[in-house]
Amino acid sequence: MRSLVINSGSSxxxxxxxxxxxxxxxTLKEEVSDLAAALEELLSSIExxxxxxxxxxxxxxxxxxxxxTRIDAGNIEELKSLHFLAxxxxxxxxxxxxxxxxxxxxxxxxxxxxxxxxxxxPKEAYxxxxxxxxxxxxxxxxxxxxxxxxxxxxxVAAKMLGKxxxxxxxxxxxxxxxxxxxxxxxxxxxxxxxxxxxxxGLVMGSRSGDIDPGAVLFMQRELGMxxxxxxxxxxxxxxxxxxxxxxxxxxxxxxxxxxxxxxxEIYTRRIKKYIGAYMALLDHVDAIVFSGGVGEHAVKxxxxxxxxxxxFGILPDFAANxxxxxxISQKASPxxxxxxxxxxxxxxxxxxxxxxxxx
Length: 359
Description:
Layout lengths: L1 E7 L3 E8 L2 E9 L4 H9 L9 E6 L10 E3 L4 H5 L9 H14 L5 E5 L9 H4 L5 H7 L8 H15 L8 E6 L3 E7 L2 E5 L20 H9 L5 H10 L2 H6 L4 H6 L3 H24 L5 E5 H6 L1 H8 L11 H6 L12 E4 L4 H14 L2
Parallel strand pairs: 1-4, 4-6, 7-10, 10-11
Antiparallel strand pairs: 1-2, 2-3, 5-6, 7-8, 8-9
Helix pairs in contact: 6-15, 11-13
């Protein structure tokens, strides 16, 4: 099968072309101001008539789209009605689908949702402790994100463990500029750190992660900050960037000043806190997986996260970690430690292909 995976953002487009399992090409176009023109340019070198399907990354599926879904004239409006849940992402994701529906109507368009993997979370995980009317009327709940990454990590880790996916229980850590943790029990997400939006949870490059809602109200009421100002601050000027002036973990690790040291301590402590919480929730943990740009490459971050976890049966091999090995736990460790390069485009392609095949 010949397929195209598209990740369309507010100012960039990524295209990944696959021939069956093989990645043929990967293209990134930045500083995009006209989506249609950019797609026409990128597609000029691709024989679109030979494509069996196009798979689109869509950030938010809400409670309606909980699995990869073929999008056509019959349900595109329903998908567009979810823009309010992710106004910075979904409109651009859906615009790419609309382009293909108009210009290449014979090619099946499959939407693969970041939120879908977490649709298996129980009510006690996805509901907030507020009146149920807010869930029923305004869809306020935890959805979770990075689903394609967590799903891919599950499959790879299961193979490394020699287990079936449905028998595998993990704590997966997608640590990039955006970051999330996921508790996976027997192949299903039962909890994740991101919430209704990608702002909740771990400390990120420029996002605060968990913060007392009362602090947000204080900023508005006592400091006179507008809703937009608070939004901008929490999403773009907080996290590592807010704490020490940069979201480049390589720079932060190399610095010795108090701001950088404190930022790294806050960052790794939050990750460790979520590992502990998920250890308590899961009946059993086969492995903890580090991934994402930071998780895959920041030796110091992994070291700081893993220090002191021996009491949970987590026995790191710090020499293997320093070498950048794929397995960084001691052979005797009851809980394995893996470093896995995530591949969201491949996971999106494979998920969409199952829809095409009717699996």
